[in-house]
Amino acid sequence: MLRHVPPLLTPDALHALASMGHGDELAIVDAFFPAARLAREGGARLVHLPGADMPGVLQAVLALLPLDDFGPEAAWTMAVVGDASAVPPAVVEAQAALRHAGQAPAAALERFAFYDRTRQAFAIFVSGEARTYGNVLLRKGVLRAAGAASLSGTS
Question: Which of 1, 60, 106, 125 is the most exposed place for a label (fewest CB within 10 A)?
Answer without folding.
Answer: 1
